[in-house]
Amino acid sequence: MTTTGAAIEAVDLVKTFGDFTAVDGVSFTVPEGSVFSMLGPNGAGKTTTVRMMTTLSRPTSGTARVAGLDVVRDADAVRRRMGLTAQSATVDELLTGRENLRLVGDLYGLDRATVRRVADELLERFSLTEAATKVVKDYSGGMRRRLDLAASLVATPPVLFLDEPTTGLDPRSRVELWGVLRDLVRDGTTLFLTTQYLDEADQLADRIVVVDHGRVIADGTPLELKDRSGKASLVVAVSRPDAVERAAEIVRAEVGEIHLDRDARRITAPAEGVGALTRIAARLDDAGIELDDIGLQRPSLDDVFLHLTGHRAESDSPAEPADPSAEEALR
Amino acid sequence: MTTAQEHFHAVHPSAQGTGPVRQVSALVRRNLTHIKRQPEMLTDVTIQPVMFVLLFAFVFGGSISVPGVDYKEWLLPGIMAQTMTFSAFIVAIGLNTDLGKGIVDRFRALPIGRSSVVVARSVSSLIHSMIGIVVMSVTGLFVGWGINDGVLRGLAGYGLLLLFGFAMIWVGILCGSALRSVEAVQGVMFTTVFPITFLSNAFARTEPMPDWLRFLAEWNPISALVQSLRELWGNDGGMPAPVDAALPLQHPVLTTIIWSVALSAVLAPLAVRSFVNRTRD
Known about the structure:
The complex is a heterodimer. Chain A has 12 helices and 14 strands. By secondary structure, chain A is α/β, with parallel strands linked by helices. Chain A has a 6-stranded mixed sheet with strand order 6-7-8-3-9-10, with helices on both faces. In chain A, strand 9 (207-212) and strand 10 form a beta hairpin. In chain A, helix 3 (97-108) crosses helix 4 and helix 9 runs antiparallel to helix 10 (273-286). Chain B is 73% helix and 0% strand. Chain B contains 13 helices and no strands. Chain B has helices at residues 3-11, 20-37, 47-60, 71-85, 87-99, 103-108, 114-143, 151-178, 182-198, 211-219, 221-233, 247-250, 252-279. In chain B, helix 7 packs across helix 8. The longest helix of chain B has 30 residues, at 114-143. Chain B is elongated. Classes of the chains: A alpha/beta, B mainly alpha. At the A-B interface, helix 2, strand 6 and helix 3 of A face helix 1, helix 2 and helix 6 of B.
């Protein structure tokens, strides 16, 4: 067992399905107690990576360790130390919420009193106490997702894998779930989460790897990634259409090159620091031009993603199966 | 050891893995809860065989003659054997349904033996089938069937049914793991298992059949089981299989045991391999 403090470690992970390479040499290290996010579009290899890390799928080559244990050689020991909230709901529809949690507890081999206590604590924590005796079939999407997460936490695993935990949730449930995840991290759990949502990675992760076509194309903290796609820009939103050209002249005189969007009445220019911002604001004010907004805009992770991959995060890559597990099922 | 692991062991000293008995019983309970929540799952061992009893006893029965014994009494062992054969269906559909859902990933990500899911499915399916056997026995009593040769021979008949059901479970695990969808399971098994149960002595005597058909019917393992039940329970009007019947029917109990053991021995490794392949990756 290692004492490196790495809760999760992958070295040159590769997974091929026939001619299709779903994961193509992915490596990463996740320090204990941190949040690591794998960001990428559908078909980028996120789910396949999670399945390898959680012993559900055998790597074609490369090694992976969870809690210092090899996911292939020590699969059973790994299973005892990690929780998984998979992309598709993995709770039993015909059991109640409480029965689902107790089943998982029984299968972990917790003693019966612990099983009962843990199930009730988790139901309470995920606001499912009232629905505890309802059959899961009658749960809403958000409730199912919460129960799924609760089921992954029955044995208080030190490492938790979440595959697109908030996909399909309404904004409120998403924010709630983020809160729960932050609590878990505060209690010392190491999180590995995949997401297509840049703001989610931005909100939660200490480190992000961006993957596309099975390869890591960038990694770093959210801030580092944003910096990589360039400096912040100055954005001026003009109130009246007839003032747009005059405003553009003034900004151009100040910073040189600008980008003008007449329809949106927006002028974008490379930011030359706060000094330029205040000078331009004063000039425009002198000229009597009314503004809706003026300010510096940091690049969003969306911009980062576009910059790195050449395509938007939301778009699917049609050349690959949208769901790698579907590919697996065919084999 | 890392601190998170220490934390884990401190919180759950007992989460060191669990015995197979506990795993299987937890999963059997889960499977039986499904039946409780969807009692219509039991129609295959309740309403369906009862319909068969009624259909054959009262609709076809008049034109099927079995000398020396009331047809209804003669028929019941046949329908019980058929019900037990359909255990294969129950296992296959249950297993296939689980495989098609995310729940199998949940189970596989837990520190449990891979065979636990299959064993639990087999046990709950046998319970499922036994419910059917109880229903059939009660229905039988109403239409004039009974165990005529004593408790011991009666129990021996039920034991033989269970043994045969055990063999059928492997058929079910094989089909349930090998086929891609519940519809495929239903389609394939309905077009094979269903006619095979009819190509036997379950509903009609084999003697009037054309030679080639009679040969198939009398070598059908289901026929040996049915013949055993009739002899053990005294539902044959005191007349054993005709002297010209094929060898299996001359020694039906032994044949049933051999068939059950042989089918299990051949199919079990195939079924387990098929299940493991299906759940690998």
